[in-house]
Amino acid sequence: MKDNKTNKSLGNKIIKIIPKKEVHSIGMVTSSQFVKNFLSRFTGVLTNVLYIEPKSKILVAVSGGVDSVSLLDAFALVRTQLSLDIAIAHLNHMLRGEEANRDEDFVKTLSENYGIPLLLQRLDVKTYARKHSLSIEDAGRKLRYDFLKRAGQSFSANYIATAHNLNDQAETVLFNIIRGTGLAGLRGIGNKFEVQKNLFLIRPFLSFTRQEIEQYAKERGLQWIEDSSNYLLHYTRNKIRHKLIPMLEQEFNPQVVHNLGKLSTIAQNSYKIVNDFIKKLAEKVIVVRNKNEIEFDIDSFKLYDDSLFPELIQFVFINYLQITLTFKQIEDIRNLVDAESGKFLVFPKDIFVYKNRRKLLIIRKEKFKSDKLVIRLRKIGHTIWKNFFIEFEEIAKTDFVPTNDPNVEFFDFDKIGNEIVIRSWEEGDRFIPLGMKNAKKLSDFFIDEKVPLYKKDDVPIFVTNGEIFWVGGIRISERFKVTKRTEKILRGKITEIKEDGNISSFF
Predict the structure, then answer these.
(1) Which of 134, 164, 188, 363 has its CA 20 to 30 A from that of 462?
(2) Averaged pLDDT, groups of 10, the chain, 507 residues long
(3) For the domain 7-164+203-252, what is the CATH superfamily, name and number?
């Protein structure tokens, strides 16, 4: 093999390894009827189901297990017949020490024996998971698919092929049912979808059972390696594979894997019909949608049957936020619609769902990482600063009712400039606290108000035209208060975001 890099030097770079010989045979030359039928089915899937055209470039993901080795072998046997250009992709997750290195070396040998180029990379999944607060499974999945997309680009591939099979499909459907799901989750794994422009991920083995694949590998005389983590029962999927499905097959129905596969197919077909309708519905009820915010008009949605709500919410989260919700999470959002204004929920990936009068807002918290951000006033404006949801609105003077809530304040609208800056306090800050005549240092004001030192940086400071008009949750400025001469009123409200979704005063 042309490989001038050692295992230790792979780093984060994708390494392309070209075999010395272009064509090799591997496995037994067999005329087994089973193998012939298997390859005939495989070819039919490629041409009649996945619509793979001649001269396509296909990157085959190979871990070294029986499924991926069999997939590679099948592609190697039909590539000439279908005029396909094949390459192998392998990611070393660096999770299982010498076992992971053994897998890498094994795939290198496969590449040489088949005469098929290999694209290889090493990534530290455990470190990535810790850094991004992900489970090992989620981190591994994300890095694996990111790698496959980059490797696909490097190979100029049209398709990335993975070895998911019918048993994987059944396990996925069961997994989704157990954790709570709707029609979207019953679809299980798709057999083809676009991961980026002109690059598709395909799963040619999705109609083959694991037993059929293992029989193919044995009759072809293939060699493969076992991943020890596949047998660790603290992983939910492994429990479903090694305990739940065998029990269902033995105690209830030996065809349970096939039946779950059929359920998945039915759900996929039904979902297409429902999805088209939901897409049109979303266009009618979503009044604001951009990269970091989605705003629903609740009254518009109430014109439709309530049973559509779960599919609408799931559609929005899957297509716009790349998150699949559980049934419980969808129920929580449904209850939020009927809750009082100001209630909210916090979801993974810094997604924040807020009930604001007759609007339902879905916002990414991560867009406001900095301590200082600028928002422009409008009659109804809202934003997030650190862990606070902040909203401003203009109200009629007749609606002005003073409150003792320190998180709700009223200001003379005309004295507020066109921009509001929300930031942490800065050395030298001064303002005129309500009820006083002279300016006071903010540091002294904090001492007087007994604000703990560790909390000072988390107090939102509101500034307009270079002047502080509100020390959030504590006091407004005397200069911006509502008076008899005030013609328009600006109402400001601060809500602390807590993980339990309950409203909380700042202090």
Answers:
(1) 363
(2) 44 74 55 92 97 97 96 96 96 84 93 94 90 85 92 95 97 91 88 93 97 96 81 73 93 96 95 90 86 84 88 87 84 90 78 84 64 55 81 86 90 90 91 94 93 83 94 95 92 78 38
(3) HUPs (3.40.50.620)
Q: 335 to each of 67, 246, 310, 355, how far by Cα in Å?
A: 44, 38, 11, 10
CATH 3.30.465.60 for domain 285-366: yes
Closest of 65, 107, 100, 249 to residue 171, by C-alpha: 249
Domain assignments of the chain as residue spans, ordered by start: 7-164+203-252, 285-366, 370-496
Angle between helices 309-321 and 327-337 (to 10 degrees): 110
Place of tokens 């862990």: 387
For residue 86 the two structure tokens come to: 């094949």
| Superfamily classification of domain 370-496 | Phenylalanyl-trna Synthetase, Chain B, domain 3 (3.50.40.10)
Length of the chain: 507
SS3 424: coil
**375 contacts 464 by C-beta, under 8 angstroms:** no
